[in-house]
Fold each of these.
Amino acid sequence: MNNKKELTQLLEEVASGKTPVEEAVLRFRELPFEDLGYAKTDLHRGMRQGVAEVIYGAGKTPEQILGIVQSLWKHRQKTILITRMSEDAKELVAASFPLEYEPVSRTGIVGEKAEPDGRGTIVVATGGTSDIPVAEEAALTAEAFGNHVVRVYDVGVAGIHRLFAHQRDILSARVIIAIAGMEGALASVIGGMADCPVIAVPTSVGYGASFGGLSALLSMLNSCASGVSVVNIDNGFGAGYLASMINHLD
Amino acid sequence: MNNKKELTQLLEEVASGKTPVEEAVLRFRELPFEDLGYAKTDLHRGMRQGVAEVIYGAGKTPEQILGIVQSLWKHRQKTILITRMSEDAKELVAASFPLEYEPVSRTGIVGEKAEPDGRGTIVVATGGTSDIPVAEEAALTAEAFGNHVVRVYDVGVAGIHRLFAHQRDILSARVIIAIAGMEGALASVIGGMADCPVIAVPTSVGYGASFGGLSALLSMLNSCASGVSVVNIDNGFGAGYLASMINHLD
Amino acid sequence: MNNKKELTQLLEEVASGKTPVEEAVLRFRELPFEDLGYAKTDLHRGMRQGVAEVIYGAGKTPEQILGIVQSLWKHRQKTILITRMSEDAKELVAASFPLEYEPVSRTGIVGEKAEPDGRGTIVVATGGTSDIPVAEEAALTAEAFGNHVVRVYDVGVAGIHRLFAHQRDILSARVIIAIAGMEGALASVIGGMADCPVIAVPTSVGYGASFGGLSALLSMLNSCASGVSVVNIDNGFGAGYLASMINHLD
Amino acid sequence: MNNKKELTQLLEEVASGKTPVEEAVLRFRELPFEDLGYAKTDLHRGMRQGVAEVIYGAGKTPEQILGIVQSLWKHRQKTILITRMSEDAKELVAASFPLEYEPVSRTGIVGEKAEPDGRGTIVVATGGTSDIPVAEEAALTAEAFGNHVVRVYDVGVAGIHRLFAHQRDILSARVIIAIAGMEGALASVIGGMADCPVIAVPTSVGYGASFGGLSALLSMLNSCASGVSVVNIDNGFGAGYLASMINHLD
Amino acid sequence: MNNKKELTQLLEEVASGKTPVEEAVLRFRELPFEDLGYAKTDLHRGMRQGVAEVIYGAGKTPEQILGIVQSLWKHRQKTILITRMSEDAKELVAASFPLEYEPVSRTGIVGEKAEPDGRGTIVVATGGTSDIPVAEEAALTAEAFGNHVVRVYDVGVAGIHRLFAHQRDILSARVIIAIAGMEGALASVIGGMADCPVIAVPTSVGYGASFGGLSALLSMLNSCASGVSVVNIDNGFGAGYLASMINHLD
Amino acid sequence: MNNKKELTQLLEEVASGKTPVEEAVLRFRELPFEDLGYAKTDLHRGMRQGVAEVIYGAGKTPEQILGIVQSLWKHRQKTILITRMSEDAKELVAASFPLEYEPVSRTGIVGEKAEPDGRGTIVVATGGTSDIPVAEEAALTAEAFGNHVVRVYDVGVAGIHRLFAHQRDILSARVIIAIAGMEGALASVIGGMADCPVIAVPTSVGYGASFGGLSALLSMLNSCASGVSVVNIDNGFGAGYLASMINHLD
Amino acid sequence: MNNKKELTQLLEEVASGKTPVEEAVLRFRELPFEDLGYAKTDLHRGMRQGVAEVIYGAGKTPEQILGIVQSLWKHRQKTILITRMSEDAKELVAASFPLEYEPVSRTGIVGEKAEPDGRGTIVVATGGTSDIPVAEEAALTAEAFGNHVVRVYDVGVAGIHRLFAHQRDILSARVIIAIAGMEGALASVIGGMADCPVIAVPTSVGYGASFGGLSALLSMLNSCASGVSVVNIDNGFGAGYLASMINHLD
Amino acid sequence: MNNKKELTQLLEEVASGKTPVEEAVLRFRELPFEDLGYAKTDLHRGMRQGVAEVIYGAGKTPEQILGIVQSLWKHRQKTILITRMSEDAKELVAASFPLEYEPVSRTGIVGEKAEPDGRGTIVVATGGTSDIPVAEEAALTAEAFGNHVVRVYDVGVAGIHRLFAHQRDILSARVIIAIAGMEGALASVIGGMADCPVIAVPTSVGYGASFGGLSALLSMLNSCASGVSVVNIDNGFGAGYLASMINHLD
């Protein structure tokens, strides 16, 4: 039982007699997590948070990632998102599971993507070309969780007419993810134009006094535009996840 | 014309002949801002962003604040929110305008609060008693913009049963604002429980290695829970504004 | 002899016999600085750098400031600029010298301002109302050294149409001083619009993660727009001085 | 004479005549350290601190490590713990000594582990899978010094029910080592549940604004829970050593 | 029921029939916290952690502190410790409760101190005279919770013979609290001498590159001596609390 | 149409009938940028800023760089500067375009350098030998945009007579670029000697407490000499671009 | 017995029979420190380090300072230096002891200054007027310990001819103390000119990115000139003490 | 003419007629530096500072290092010290010059070491084994410039008896170089024992919160012991150079 929809459906089937009570009990008696020793896969996250367990690949061995995929798959999770997945992990997982892998953002998806059932459009905008890996992590995460995504790349404020050419996309979005390194001004400019929530993602793109994304992070936190909030440096996944959550609010 | 609702209404009146074209033209020919020399009041923000201009009181003299209030009032803005308003500014503004002033958060409202027309409930939670000034700024902002707010104060993770006693509030919220100083763990714990967007506000509460809120800020940015985004240290207004925006998405 | 113009004029008078050699020798035999014990007034700065000695008032006692003014005045410096001048110092100096004092930026000028002989216009722009003290220090410095200044205040990127309303000023300037706190995005946006040098001044305006201007500083240093350079936080004087230097290049 | 127990025993043997005075004198006349030139092995640490000299492997060549092992072995140290031991050093030492090597934490033990004589149980808990190398360093250190260790891995606060499933372990521990990267909230939550000392170990796990463990470190230092103290980032050894010390207090 | 001893005692009385079951039920049915609106007093902390709720006075108004004292007192907490208590709060509380107030550390105790029932001695050492306020907070906390405390002040490493004169105190302690600002070397030197846990408290004493205690904090975290752990800058209370916890382990 | 000169020329030809209106219209109807998906090449930058689009090579794949070169070349940009160009990118671009590549600074130029039409001389000075890669990036950028450049390398303040030997260069420059790592004092010393704008470039040269150029950056921002402004660490391009802009002011 | 000279003299008197052995024994039997509770006055520092105990006044109450003065005076210390002495402490001490107080640096001396017996001259140079308080602390410390001091104030590198006018002082010094805030370049320039040790003292003079002296500190630590070492920000005393130590080496 | 001794000797020979004036003139007419384009070798440093030019190898190509060696050699410099010399540079230089190379510290010496003519002994002490590379750079530098060096390695404060075993070395030194990473307490402890100048060198040895030597650096700057000054992190050369300078003062 990986999300609220399934939970609701099961309860309705019980109510209508379609599913016998005994079978439903069995489904509920699953432990809320499976203990693999090195990891405890969170099997109730879908029910608790509406979106099922995701695997953050960095710092895990290929074997550990495979083990977690096996655990989630066994418990009938339909979409398993794996971020920051190394080439090695990809090889290992792809040998046993249907894996879609996007190399720029190093994102993998085991199983099927959700149908686009979000209420509006999520715009993913970047300041420059070098921000694209983070942007793709955000976009693929949002798509995996059932959202329609519009990509608007390389619209940094140094040539602001490029951004204004996309004004219609900005104004009709339900959520916007603004991704930029260097001085991160993109978030403020978009925040001043749009009337929907803007999730700002600082990236570690830049050099010198960008200090690995610190400059963009501080810039975005201090945005003079309202309606802007910030996630961790390079955290495309976090932005995509939150955008999906907002886009599914009814 | 301070927000999209008014804009839509005016256009409908024009369409139905209720408002003559000439009068509508006059309304539209207002400049999008008034230039006071020391400030340019943004008169189209309501139309552009759905919420009218807000006055950030810090760093402005009482006279400047009064001048901006006069400009917005003259242009028919119905609710004028003033944050970080000094006692002096309060005295000066209250002499000429109907002002409601909340001293803990130093927030003032000129005119009438919006009717609660948000779609759900906004929970404002704090880790401790000392975070309340920031929390009230957030709560009053959300209320001023038409939201129903539930306050859950002093539920820091050192005695986590106090938070769990409010589990029902957490689970039924449409947006949660999690406010904490020190180590800011509250945002992660709430983020792990809730299935709605969590806006984390680090506060400058603490001492020593809290470094004026830096510790809580970093903690919240690195939250292992998904669905959490962060605004600036002590930025209760920003959190309330964003929460209201999310709560008004249809 | 406080600047190159005077130096050139003297030499021409000697060449033409108008000034006897002996008198010129006397003028040249002045020491390049006067030693007051607590300060060594730089009497050749005008000749060396084209602009005469300026007094940075912070950290000096009113008596020390008065002493330096007396030394410069005695050596025929025509315009004595004093920045960050306290009320006390103002009182003391004004008792003996013709002093013009601007209280917002705490800038004093003893003697006469230079005639506007710069080649173009210097635009001084700010993101917000709270940046005005720094902006006035920049503007008054530039005016004291003979420049025509256009002030464009409160045009931060949260309402970018306010900046675009001044596009003509931006495009016709010879130098622009862009002053902003918080996220400092103004410098990048102006830098992308203008085709002249932009001097960015971060201010300590803001709170929380603005860390006393650090955020705006880093933002401006990482500007993705070309033609932007940066001076110290709140250094209105430095920006005005440099702008004047550029505006006087032939 | 590597620890207080041995010291006490020797003195008792002298008292009972079992060991002649001359022989005891010889034992005492050993220098308190041996000077290898590049290192001075601390031979009295066991007597002074109850636990014998440990070799911190990082920054030492394999040859230096071998030399120190030889020195300690020669002076009858029974358990020689080597942390952060490279593969090369492992090869070299294993060629001459009985070495047990654990590759995840890169910890080596020459000689025999102490018998578990601590008074209670030490719980080693981690927020995630990536913290395991640090956790194993802590656990192996504690085991080498004679403690019973319970491992509770991947119980981070994003799915707090995983931690609560181990509540009994937490409540019955004599000391707890809480290890986490990212926002490090685990230490606070455990600190609020447990009634025994909690040693918090921040790890460099995370990315972006985790700044190599700084975020978790600050978070743990600012813990709102009492009874929590902190050791250096990734310092599993230090935590295991201190936990053992506390667990051996009578 | 404010601590485990009371809990055990009550259960024994129930077992022996001395306390009727009904009365015990009443005692247990108390809520685990009382909600004062601005604070939720943690009434089960004693049972959960062995030590009852403590009031951190900074950032709370005198009225809030009084309210919390009233709540705890009403629920029969015998010793109420208040740290960082302002003169104003002291006046207000002392008007209604038996308050002992120590002005150097601004610590207040309402009710009676616990009997010294810790197993050994806690040594509180400082590097200098200026560290005494933090040291007294630690010492008074430990005394309030039932510990025997030995104060060893002004034994910084610049005159290390002063520390060595107290070697006997150091060697016979069960726990040591080492408090120092500036370079914080005291913790390492004591850590190298002692065979018991050392709790290091960096203080904000110092100037320039001490950066408000950051220097001492980093120094202590990097201590080359084992058995040392660190609490927040100036956190005398936290050190005293933890020391008491260790000293009460049986 | 890549710069203002071309724009002016076209308009003059239209005025004189030399170019038919229809053809001019076609030229103007070009979009202001071309969208390559991963990049939007700014085709109006020349017209808007006087200098055409430059390619910042870091973080772009060789294929992306080639694509952008093709786009700019197709739109008749005569000089295409590529900074931080990898060896791989160089190979790929050189296969299809006339590329001049300077390996020390990793700078490439496709097409022809502009004729030196700046009004004066740009001096590029470095503190040491290790700063030369940054200096060459600055010098080549300035040369590509039509400036006469004088290189003055290894004149750091530790042997200040080496700098004074170049006093004539310093005094006759129109703009000076002062490049230094370590303590960055060169900018202040040159700033005190020269009467023209000084652009300071901190470099990441140094070790230990130079913290990747932070020390030089802070030093330059705090320069006590007037007329000095700063660009990002290692930003030779930015300095060369700005110097060219100042040198082309009439 | 406050210094080595006195120690040597006493032993010679014993050798020659001038002082009876019994009296010498008494002198030696003094404890090496006196314990005042809040302070342990180091009575052997003179013997151990050649210079007697100094009182750092900051963070000590006037009563504590008086107490320490009484202790040192009682043990026959002839010169008692008190740094960072408040007006209040001055009043209190001056009531009972012969005190010389210098208000700019807030330095007090009880008793008599040592005769100038250093081997050469100590030059104390500052970058600006605002650095004088720190400079006076250094100069008075050096004078109190028996050195000839030459003050060279306000010779910052922005007008480097002012420094060169003192070249003879620089070249003939035995030690130089270079004191500067802002970018701290003075230390490097002096370091490059002089052939004697240079002690650099960063000051907290400056604003914005000087970050309380951090900028000058880093600058001085990274000095490209050899022979330069650094003490803490604003630590005039430390520099004066060390300079005296070097100046008394034979 | 590479140092003052040679200068004095030449002038004496001229005075005595031993060297004809013409030849002396030739010697003096050498330029004070030779310009190699990428470097300006400082040929008067010996005369100006008493010690000849040193080559800092990091960031220079082997060819550049060779070129500078050739220039110095040609101008009769007798001892050429090269620090941070790569293996490649070593190979290249050794092919043409008599080079002594020490691999641990990567230090090279071309030509002959100076005779030990310093007045006393320089002690080089380290906290641990991993600090030895920095210590050897310091020791070899001091030896190259004519000093007697005593090495005292691995005497960190965790086992302070190891340091006290060298008390005689400490007390009889003329200068001490104290080298330590981690918490850097060694400098303070030695500073409290010794009566001679102590030069503290923080090293980048450590992990986690040592932040590349920052912790040791701050610790040493804040040393409570007097007579301690600090050089840059890992700057063994700087310490050795300064120690030699002090040891040669007469």
Amino acid sequence: MRRVRVHPLPTAALPEAEVMLVVDVIRATSTAVMFLESGVKALWLTAGLEEARALRQNGELLAGEVGGLKPPGFDFGNSPREVALAELWDRTVIHATTNGTKAAHKAAQVAREVLLASLLNAPAAAQQAARLGSEVAILCAGKEGQMGMDDLYTAGVLAQMLLAEGFEPVGDGTQVALHLAQKPARPLLEASEAALALAREGLGEDVAFCAQLGLSERVPRLLQRRGEALIFG
Amino acid sequence: MRRVRVHPLPTAALPEAEVMLVVDVIRATSTAVMFLESGVKALWLTAGLEEARALRQNGELLAGEVGGLKPPGFDFGNSPREVALAELWDRTVIHATTNGTKAAHKAAQVAREVLLASLLNAPAAAQQAARLGSEVAILCAGKEGQMGMDDLYTAGVLAQMLLAEGFEPVGDGTQVALHLAQKPARPLLEASEAALALAREGLGEDVAFCAQLGLSERVPRLLQRRGEALIFG
């Protein structure tokens, strides 16, 4: 039996899964997808800006945000639109993101395979998850311990796609996400707290970008761990 | 401004609220409402069966469950249907319930007023909450740290009623609950994990009972605390 379970939040006691899709749709995992789409060969996820700076050795690019904007000395903010316009063939990016990295670390503790998912790569991410295992979990990053409607919606869209591949839904979080996924993406995402915070910074266009379904076939996959950094490619 | 916020789970860091509605709809808070409806003057919520036994001094009735069923030496299980048939005028009930009591304790730490809510008393509970304060929170008990679709649905129904009283919804949890509340009660509740577990014990009729909207005007309100017990009336 193939099963999919949505976790609305990265709680302390996550059950094991073969494959875990990590979702931080506004904006970390959307931006991560666009980094790979732009030619990046390795994406290092770190939790803090100082950690990212300390990891840079030769030629790595730094991405991150403070209050939605690019920090001093960084090459990129956390904007998938900005990344989409860049040519980054064969480069390495060190990407500082608080909630997304925290969730990815939780996933790495309990899953054999960890993938980063967003609406941009949802069809490809669901297909790859289905290829990699029969027990798939979808982990919503949320925001500082609070559930994010944007992440839960995206989890519902991914779960829907796995159902179409013959997976069975397990648990109440999965059912709630599936109900939410019946709504259209853009208004749902735009009503989330994460989107409202970005709109206040004048970054509302990023939300519209993140709401696009299936723009990319690239699915960041956890390859290794170096200290506190998780390396995706 | 009057505001309502839904908390999908009793997490560690709950913000303060003037009034908190605690929801454990299958079955603790539904049963609690029926105890008051049946004439009970004081309802003591405790976390464990042993605690409940230890609190009994003279004539109090014991309610609780082990795997859905009435424990040895107890007067009632945790069944609202069973309680609805009883005549309990002026009696005191000591009600052992794990998730519901845990959530009520969390609520008591951050709120001035704590009320127990279910679908059975939803219209009365929303009205009383609106009378008691302008910052209302709805706390879903969930099950052993997992979100319950049954509780989130009920929270959405309560939030809808508060919106009709002029309250503004705050936060993503509230929006998700409001989306869920657009569905009909009975199939939604019956699809929840809590309901499926009861159905396996042959107690599916209790879920149908809990799905009835507005059967009672009684709203259990926290009056005082005695040791680890919370006394509602």
Amino acid sequence: MPESFKLSIIFVTSNINKAKEIENVLSTYDISIVVSQIKKREIQSEDIGEIARESALYAYQTLKKPLFVEDAGLFVKILNGFPGPYSSFVYKTIGVDGVLKLMFGQSNREAEFISQIAYINEEGSLKLCRGSCEGTIAEEARGCGGFGFDPIFIPKGCSKTFAEMSVVEKNMFSHRAKAARLLASMLLEEYK
Amino acid sequence: MPESFKLSIIFVTSNINKAKEIENVLSTYDISIVVSQIKKREIQSEDIGEIARESALYAYQTLKKPLFVEDAGLFVKILNGFPGPYSSFVYKTIGVDGVLKLMFGQSNREAEFISQIAYINEEGSLKLCRGSCEGTIAEEARGCGGFGFDPIFIPKGCSKTFAEMSVVEKNMFSHRAKAARLLASMLLEEYK
């Protein structure tokens, strides 16, 4: 960890892409992360915030140190919020092509990415940071950056998909970067 | 509860259809069920057995009495096991029509329903009973019996979908009935 970083916090995740995106945001606040890959336990819920909260509490039982976890999902309006909290499983099974097949012929392509960061501090008290990004589902997959459903998500006001952006560019729009900036403000307030 | 029933056991579920199907099987062994609708906590996992086990342990913490829970899923081969453990959420969002759309033009229509019953006895020890039913995904939805994806599942060797069968007929083939018969044998052995 470079000496210039004043603050360092544990991020429990096995997703290296998430770590890169959040690290990029937090580094601008002089906050660094230490990635822990301990096994997470995630509950089934339609509420991303509830999943993140329970997951953080479970990880805290093991690590007993300040930490945060992040849970996210893509909610497609015409599909009643599918794939939502199960975006990762849906990506692994039917993938981008499956979602495009479900959206074939749909004129309403509105969607929202939601991210919830659950942070537990020294005293064991928990706080949630929520970020969201509205957009549309592309007609076809484009780009090879990012991960998951990034190749078919176009943030509002953009023409590129998330997968056609660099990490820095994606972080100007993304749900995860918004949640990470809230986390940064909270951490700076707590450790000022 | 009729006097003729010797054994009675708590089934934690909010799904009345599941209760009816399992009740029909267990009654032939003179075992009755008492439905408890306490809030379940289900974890995210690709293993139905793990979900059922954790869910039963959680319910046992509250009820502290012998009980069972059941978890089930539809695993479509060409969709890499989708919707699997998240069948209930997928049914609520994209529904039967969504799965038919994903299967449009697919010649391989093999699928499997899997059920896992997790039973905890007086001493708090847990056992799993697994049942499965192989079949195919129908070209279109048929029938109005059953629940969930029953209108598009045709068990191997049948021409009818699960939704075109009565409870008794469905129980001759179903994953859930097979798991329930294993549970019955286990209970009769335990309380003989």
